[in-house]
Structure of Protein-serine/threonine kinase:
Amino acid sequence: MASEPVARAVAEEIGRWGSMKQTGVSLRYMMEFGSRPTERNLLLSAQFLQRELPIRIARRALELECLPFGLSNKPAVLKVRDWYLDSFRDIRFFPEVRNRSDEHAFTQMIKMIKVRHNNVVPTMALGVQQLKKDLRNTRKVHRGFDEIDEFLDRFYMSRIGIRMLIGQHVALHDPNPEPGVIGLINTRLSPVQLAQIACEDARSICLREYGSAPDINIYGDPKFTFPYVASHLHLMLLELVKNSLRAVQERYMNSDRDVPPVRIIVADGEEDVTIKVSDEGGGIARSGLPRIFTYLYSTAKNPPELDGPNEGATMAGYGFGLPISRLYARYFGGDLQIISMEGYGTDAYLHLSRLGDSEEPLP
Ligand SMILES: Nc1ncnc2c1ncn2[C@@H]1O[C@H](COP(=O)(O)OP(=O)(O)OP(=O)(O)O)[C@@H](O)[C@H]1O
Ligand SMILES: [Mg+2]
């Protein structure tokens, strides 16, 4: 337990750092900077993070304290806030990084911070679900929930940025990176090949849950590549494909008609790489469309247990798949759109910016 004056001092520090200006970086900048991971550059990178991370973390800690409907006081949200406070302290109490050995210790420390925050998304989801249960009997909550959705968008967007910065810095220490890989960025990522991997993963989850899985056809040139973060693209594709498989599966499960395959089309434009995930799973009612990008909307029946590191391992449940995927797309200047034909199927358009020079959105 921190003593009263210490707690007050930390609160003051958080207030001060939380009002400083954040500095964004672009995919292209990370790629250019990371292509020369010299000792000097790693030191510069650590020094940048030592100043930038506390600013970003403090902002989130401040916001976590004043959420509407008493969400801030839910045990799960308090837990998340403590992680942010601990990480803020870890970085602020770390001595100024001046040389190689400081840099190594600093890198170990931020690597640990990243692990500490692994379960932020399901833990926040739990807090939001607790709140939703409390408010079930009050009618007028919908307007107020917009505020929570907007908060969660800012919060998760910021989290993507923080994890990208830490992950990139840590990964630049790899002594034998694979050819074409700069930190977390794969400069020659084949979206078709990655789609194949994401589809296998989604199908095996579907098989496990339903005992069968619709086929998936992928159209596009497997030799086409562009620079992107493979883990981000994998996450987005996995979420979209899971949604499509679930829709098709549920629609055809008890019928003897032929199951129509899910189709994935990869287009390489000059500005964007666009990936369309197209299914004949019956679509989404127009009245439900405004809600699919909110964090509380899911038509899944049994929300999964929210206490393990099982992000993405079930077919459906939290209602987080689409909003989070759209944040990942927007993080590097892309976007995600869903077009539905109720009674037929759904097309998801994932646009990824090819130029890579849009700056991080900094909520
Ligand atoms: N391809 C699709 N066809 C029909 N309905 C869809 C499709 N994609 C999404 N939906 C609807 O939108 C809702 C929200 O999707 P989202 O991926 O955000 O959450 P989820 O799949 O319910 O849970 P999870 O967080 O596990 O992804 C789904 O519950 C489903 O009702
Ligand atoms: Mg989903």
Remarks:
- The first helix runs from residue 4 to 18.
- The chain has a mean pLDDT of 92.
- The chain has ten helices and eight strands.
